[in-house]
Each structure stands twice: as structure tokens, then as C-alpha cells.
Amino acid sequence: MASSQGSDAGKTALRAEYVRIRTRMGASVRAATDARILLGLEELSAWKNARLILTYVSFGSEVDTHALMQAAWAAGKQVAVPRCRRFHSLDFYVISSEDDLEPGLRGLMEPSPDCGRPLTPPQMVGSLCIVPGLVFDADGYRIGYGGGYYDRFLAFYPGEKVALVRSRQLSGNPLPRDEHDVPVDWLVSESGTWCCNPMVR
């Protein structure tokens, strides 16, 4: 249950603030910014070395991942996207094109039932996970949408984690965090790339 005090209240206020920041950006500015972010991602060694990309399917004013999926397929990589399950958990399924997607929870695009079995952690070794969020700090911690889906998944994920983030979604101050929160290893923005985890350099 959400609290009106402490870090929960802080996260709620930050979510509202950064949703406003994101939606105030014009569509053409978002498109140009996201194109530069994708170029930065493609220069990242973790991207170049990954045989499998796990990514969310962007919705609304989120950083675009549709071009990212096309870039991955063009580079000979596999792409997997999540399906939301009960108890706020995620399963990832390999898709061969966006035709394999259909509306799921809250209208978000998810893999269709024809996509076979979900990936297991051993099958994800050597992959790269693109992690969504509303705002990130320099340590790789984030404020997401409040469901806890990705933190539950990332607790057992064996690969590197990267956030695609517009500069306006970067916090100069540490964000509120709980002990179950899992930081990303890399931040890629239109202005540059930042390693949050020296162990992956």
C-alpha cells in the first residue's frame, strides 16, 4: 500500500514531476533526442557484444524503442520483450517482428501467445536489458512507474542493464531508494554515456 509519508511520498511526487517534464517535450524534439540516444547505445560495448536484447516496448512519450528493435534485428541480434504476469512479475519472450505484439496489460504491447515459452535466466546470459524509468540518478537508481515489475525481474537477471534517458530525466541528486531497488549499469542520453557500475567497465 502506498504511503503518504517518507520515500513513498517522495517517489510519488517525482513521478508526477517527471511525467510532466516528459510530456511537455514536443514530438519532434523527442524524436531527434531519441535518435541520438540510439546512436549512443549502438556505440556501447555491451550492445555490440550482446546476442540478445531485452527491451520494453515504448508507449506514449517514453524513449522510443521501436527503432532500437529494428536496429537489433538489422545487426543480427535477437529481441525479447516482456509480458506482465500476476504478482507484478515479468516474463520475456523472443519476437521476430513487431507483428508478434498485441495489446496487453493497460494497453501496453506484449508478445502474443504464439511466441513460445518465456526465456529462462540461463538463456539470458550474454544479453543486455533495456530498463524503463521516469528519472535516473548517477548511481543508476531510478523512479519507475511504481509496480515493481522490473526490480523483481532484475534481482535475478544475469546480464548488463542500461537505461535510455533524455537529459531532462537525469537527477543531479540521489533518488529515494529501497533495499530491493536494482540500479542499472549504464545510462545513455543524447549528451553522452555514463557507467554507473565500475565492475562492468
TrEMBL record:
Keywords: ATP-binding, Ligase, Magnesium, Metal-binding, Nucleotide-binding. ATP binds at residues 11-15, 142-150. InterPro entries: FTHF_cligase (IPR002698), FTHF_cligase-like_sf (IPR024185), NagB/RpiA_transferase-like (IPR037171). It is an enzyme of class 6 (ligase). Its cofactor is Mg(2+). Pfam families: 5-FTHF_cyc-lig (PF01812). Substrate binds at residues 57, 62. Its EC number is 6.3.3.2. The keyword Metal-binding applies. The keyword Magnesium applies. One of its GO terms (biological process) is tetrahydrofolate interconversion. GO terms for molecular function: 5-formyltetrahydrofolate cyclo-ligase activity; ATP binding; metal ion binding. It comes from the Bacteria. It catalyses: (6S)-5-formyl-5,6,7,8-tetrahydrofolate + ATP = (6R)-5,10-methenyltetrahydrofolate + ADP + phosphate. Belongs to the 5-formyltetrahydrofolate cyclo-ligase family. This is 5-formyltetrahydrofolate cyclo-ligase. The lineage of its organism: Bacteria, Bacillati, Actinomycetota, Coriobacteriia, Coriobacteriales.
